[in-house]
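Q: Can someone sanity-check these two? First one:
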Amino acid sequence: MRIVVCLFLSWALCVFFLRANIKQQHAKTKEKKTSEEKNSAQGMPVVLRTSEEVSDSGKSLELSHDREKFQNLYEVYHKSRRGRCDGCRYIPFYDKMWPGYKSVFDAGAANCGVLRAMSAKGKHVAGIEFSEWVVDHFCSDFRDRGTVQVGPLHEASARPGAFDLVLCTDVLEHVPLANVDASVRKLADLASPGGHLFLIIASDPSKHENHPERSSSFAVTQGEYKVHETVKPRRWWLAKLAEHGLNEDTKALRVMLQTNMDSVKDPRFGYISDKGKKYPPNDRHLARVYALMKL
């Protein structure tokens, strides 16, 4: 009988300490979530987590060998995307963030989905795309009219200061570090005085590097050329942008987050469910958003 009692008491103590530990972990999780919700409610990014910076690969789009290799890489990359337009998901935000803009430059036009949508809205559009393959297959009409140029971002020949809104979504992390400064300078030059820029920049390695066994892009270069050539934290990019007179537009960012709550409801940027539950923005995705104003 004593053995049974001892075993029961031991079991009870184990259950007690296990429940106490679970309760403590739940309290920590709730405290962290509350802090993130408070920050996101103010329209400001929460504490951001970025991966370790990737060292400079030494590649440059000024070198014909590297440029040819990158062309091969992005032909395979765009073929795998099947004409998907990731940049189109951000279009509903622009009218709310910066009402009244009339001209748009898309730096990294890809399959020209954004330019087509903006043109349909009556905007004056232009852009540049590095991949000859994707322009040949999706943007030949824009290219033939001179609306879209083929080449690296820093070689864009559009008239400086001609655009109310300059877009560069999921592009700068693909640019070799040697060409980043010239690319950011070109973005600043294209924007009109007091104009706006909307950038999405990843601060972590591409899935093509993280999972090479599933990547046709990795296979074509055997990892010699990376899909994300420049991996830097947000603070690094903000400093680089500021060097060229591009500062954060925190008001526009708050408008974006509120617009998402009200209508767009992209789960990456926070939303309210049909049952009224509020979900804060995902800090990893919010870290990629740069709403900027040209001074």
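And here is the second, same format, sequence then tokens:
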Amino acid sequence: MSRTALCAALLGLLAGCGRDGPTEPAGPANQGDERVAAAELLPESDGLFSRTGDIRVFAGRELFDYINGYGELHLSYNFQVAATADYKLLPGGADAFADVYDMGGPDDAWGIFSIVAPEDDERVEVGAEGENRVRAACSSMSIQFAKGRYYVKAEAFEVGGGIREGLLALAGAIADAIEGASAVPDIVGYLPPEGLVEGSVKVWRTDLALRQFMPLSGEDPLRLPRGALGAAGRYGGRAHWAFVIEYPSEAEAEAALTAYTEAVGGDGASPARRSGSFVAGVWRASTDEDAQRILDSISDRLPRRN
């Protein structure tokens, strides 16, 4: 399977994922502290994997030289640098690769992970015991996680014996190299846990990321400015979402509430309300009563205004 086909099958987000083979370096890894830091997280070898070839590093919009199709999605967060290397998974020698994305901060790293990690992937723990342990999304051919300011993924190009073990070892080695603990963004805590579908939570900053899972009508109906951060989770069918967004100001939150209300046309199953600089809402609940119950639960969890 080509890398383009593999990306499309695994992510299913945007067409044209262009990782069809080793690419030329975008520049030496010693150009800037961020390049060096990301590259140093890619291990050389272990009993279950061995790095082949050079580490390649891409900064800023150089990312399009590596992942052409969905680079814009990464840039919609706070992407800084990507480092990538090819590997052999042992003992079978299956080809694989590992990518480390410096997303500028923990919220953005967890955010891009939440968007691209398939909801149905198994959730597993990788890394050493203690604070280095991290929860990852794992399939038969891939594993990905967020820790600190980094989003990490490793993928193989075939299914076979020993591949899962090699990917787990490779992901664990990278997780152990990243300092600090893995943490879910604080804004996720405003979503009520009762009835929340495991693996469904998304964190986003822009309309581009929002539309990957919640395709509202109109242009930027939640009026997401620079500095906004949102979280959403699924509570019922595929179209039943609850969300909360923190805006930089109360005025921007009020404008967003007005725009969203107009976009859903006053639908009782898609209500929203503002609390200070937060906007909470539900999209396409099964009933109006269900929507209000979830919205009330979110509102009860939001910070109280003085």
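A (reply): Looked at the second one. Residues 1-31 have pLDDT under 50 and may be disordered. Helices lie at 3-11, 33-39, 71-75, 106-116, 163-177, 207-210, 250-264, 288-301.
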